[in-house]
Design a protein that fits this description.
It contains 7 helices and 4 strands. It is α+β, with helices and mostly antiparallel strands and about 150 residues long. The protein has a 4-stranded mixed sheet with strand order 2-1-3-4.
């Protein structure tokens, strides 16, 4: 956890993004690390956890992080939490909670509410389009014997 906190302090110092850091650990070895780089990379997905997950996956050569734990300086946002589920990590440890993050301007309460709302009640309009053209691609995927589900 101290490494994650140190990375969050580095993020604060270099103004690359918010003051957040994260590491992925497997068998007592850090296999991925990240600090927020949203502003520097002009990438809204460049959160500490996302970057740590990406590095860890490359490091161990798998898109799954089973057997790994994550240490992050603050409770993951909804995007990062979803990525942690997709990565199949074993456990997430965090230092600051979402209330502390909200107190410094990183309030994700609206996003939690949006994701819980039914599609027609969300502020981001979503419309189905060309589904008949897209469906055959899914059908072809289903028919593949070598597909890897994740």
């Amino acid at each position: 956890m101290r490494i994650a906190i140190h990375l969050s302090a580095e993020a604060l110092e270099d103004d690359a993004g918010g003051p957040f850091g994260a590491i992925v650990v497997r068998d007592d070895e850090v296999v991925g690390r990240g600090r927020n780089r949203v502003l520097a990379d002009k990438d809204p997905t460049a959160h500490a956890e996302m970057l740590a997950i990406r590095e860890a996956c490359r490091s161990i050569g798998d898109h799954r992080l089973k057997g790994c734990v994550v240490y992050t300086s603050s409770e993951p946002c909804p995007m990062c939490m979803a990525a942690l589920y997709w990565a199949r990590v074993d456990h997430v440890f965090y230092a600051n909670g979402r209330d502390e993050a909200a107190a410094i301007g990183f309030d994700d309460a609206w996003l939690y509410a949006e994701l819980a709302a039914e599609e027609q009640h969300r502020s981001l309009p979503m419309s189905r389009f060309l589904d008949q053209e897209a469906k055959p691609v899914l059908d072809r995927w289903r028919q593949r014997d070598d597909r890897i589900l994740y």
